[in-house]
Description:
Blueprint: H1 2-20, H2 25-36, H3 42-49, H4 57-86, H5 109-123, E1 127-128, E2 134-136, H6 137-140, E3 165-167, H7 173-181, E4 186-195, E5 207-218, H8 222-237, E6 243-250, E7 253-262, E8 281-290, H9 292-297, E9 305-313, H10 314-322, H11 335-338
Parallel strand pairs: 1-4
Antiparallel strand pairs: 2-3, 4-5, 5-9, 6-7, 7-8, 8-9
Helix pairs in contact: 1-4, 2-4
Bound molecules: zinc ion.
Residues 263, 265-266, 270, 273, 275-276 line the site of zinc ion.
Amino acid sequence: MKNFESRVDELRKKFEGALAGVNDDRALEDLRNEFLSRKRGHLTLFFDDLKALTPEERPVAGKLVNELKIQVQEALTTRQGKLATRVVTPDKADLTLPGEKLPWGAPHPLMLFQEEIENIFLAMGFSIAEGPEIETDYYNFEALNFPPHHPARDSWDTLYLGDDLLLRTHTSPMQIRVMEKFKPPIRIIIPGKVYRREAIDPTHLPMFCQVEGLLVDEGVTLAHLKGTLEHFLKTLLGDKIEIRFRPSFFPFTEPSAEVDISCILCRGKDPACPICGGTGWKELLGAGMVDPQVLKNVNIDPERYSGWAFGLGIERTAMFRYQIADMRIFYENDLRFTRQFSLK
Length: 344
Ligand SMILES: [Zn+2]
């Protein structure tokens, strides 16, 4: 009888050891067969052995084997439950359940607006150029006629990454890169992100988007610049707007101009207008004839060729068109805002 008891104990340990190594349904089924199979299971064979015991020993031993059998059955059921929760096989998936609905993505409002600008210029025969956001001092300033210590450099509030590397403060470095690589005629627009050390407020962000235009060819005049910008701005903002050029200064254009458009909200009639402040005009972009020195810097003969360039802020222009007062809303990812824009 003692011998019988220790055999039951041994079998219990063997079962517990084997169960610890079971990691899938198949191993679990093998273990169940090994212990509980009606023909050759360890426990079945034990019940057979009871016949060899005395009538007094038999009920005690039978109880022991029965207890072990119940323990084995319960442990197998528990483990089966755990395996089923952990591994979901395709044939166990309930195909009658409704599917998970994934929301449609959409381009960001600023991307849509940028594409609209690009399409207007593509239709006029311009190409699109894109370039690095990390620039050297040479491309961002020097080649564009800002020599070292030029006072105009101060106004850019540049984010430097080292002595020579910086985050570009405007898309204009790409004018130089394009003119170095291609000879006139050149007709390009350059959309992209630019960086300045600005404090964040409703009309300033340290990162924003610009689009820049450049045309270089023989016989290019200010009249071409004016005509092109007028067509562009009226297509983008509506036929009714008026455009005016005001003299200004940029180191890389000469002469230079600020381009204003008439206020689409009050037309100059509301002294408290949030867009124009009652002046009737909104400054929208900077432009001018490419400075002959800039052309010389890229080995284009200024005696033969002339050109113009302009640049505008994409957020700023979108704010004007959609009458948005706070630029930050473009970057807050509030779906209540972004869902109001869609592809035309
Ligand atoms: Zn106004």
